[in-house]
Amino acid sequence: MRIDCVFSGGGVKAFAFLGALQSISEKGLQIERVAGTSAGAIIASFIAAGYKDLEIEQLLKEIDLKKFLDPPLLSKKIPFIKWLLLYFQMGLYKGDLFEEWLDEKLGAKGIRTFGDIPEGYLKVVISDISLGKLIVIPDDLYPVYNIDGKSFNVATAIRMSASFPYFFMPKQLINKERTRSYIVDGGLLSNFPLWVFREDGKDRRPVLGITLSDSLEDQQPYHIQNALDMLQALFQSMLKAHDSRYISKTMEHNIVFIPVKNIKTTDILISDDEKQSLIQLGKERASNFLKFWPK
């Protein structure tokens, strides 16, 4: 059976998606269109590029997440100045190495721009905090920024969607008002865009959503010990509130909930054992769910 898939954000917790993809493959389901926010957009882009589940697992297991931390050259020479740069550049890391890695891996499958992907088969959610708008790439690029969606680089879109506030510097686009728009993590406005494939209130084919939480409403309390913890708690509270109100209860029958605990979105130093545990958790949860799906 052919299905569409939507992946939530979740930072490094997204290793759990790899196990879910294994279960989807074992069930004999074929993914057609994909969409996602932040880390979910990374997974979606690899699927759209033609990578199989085990290939995606290999890609993610091989990377050293610390290598994506690319502070400006000046802050390398004068460490304390990074906090001054954070004030003016609104992020600790440039995100260039991350985008270059994405472009290389997608390019290996012949994917550079959205024009290289069948129309409508990949949708990436970003947040334009200058206009206060949720943006879906490539659909909204021309109406909002006068940019041809087909010519837009896929790796750039993913980098935008994964721009966790103050961690990566926000990307910039010139909007139709001829002002500069700052783009940050899509999760700020929709961490789980399960609605993105709805057409006239209906789905073309079964849509399977996969999210790294217990449910749309239940949320474990945050243990806040410092400013970074508070920032993450604020961010998670905003995205959780939006999606829990937007997604109807009737959609829960199409959602695989993967409750990832004790690992934060930005825990880039997680061990190989923790990665494997996340993969196994994702596989178990998805496998149990797919026994009775679609209903």
Provide the fold topology.
Elements: E1 2-7, H1 15-26, E2 30-37, H2 39-48, H3 53-62, H4 73-77, H5 82-89, E3 91-93, H6 96-107, E4 122-128, E5 133-137, H7 141-145, H8 154-161, E6 166-168, E7 171-174, E8 180-185, E9 207-211, H9 227-246, E10 255-257, H10 272-290
Describe the protein's architecture and organization:
Helix 1 (about 15-25) packs parallel to helix 10 and helix 2 (about 40-50) runs antiparallel to helix 8 (about 155-160). This protein is an alpha/beta fold and about 300 residues long. The strands form 2 sheets. Strands 1, 2, 4, 5, 7, 8, 9 and 10 form an 8-stranded mixed sheet that branches. The chain has a two-stranded parallel sheet with strand order 3-6. Helix content is about 35%, strand content about 15%. The two termini are about 15 Å apart. The mean pLDDT is about 85.
Task: Describe the structure concisely for a colleague.
With 295 residues, the protein is an alpha/beta fold.
Give the rounded overall mean pLDDT: 85
Helical percentage = 25-40%
| Rg computed from alpha carbons, rounded to a whole number of angstroms | 18 Å
Low-confidence stretches: none
Structural class: alpha/beta
Strand content: 15-25%
| Amino-to-carboxy terminus distance | 13 Å
H and E order: EHEHHHHEHEEHHEEEEHEH
Shape: globular
Count of runs of 4 or more consecutive helical residues? 10
Instruction: Outline the biggest β-sheet.
Output: 8 strands, mixed
Say how many strands there are: 10
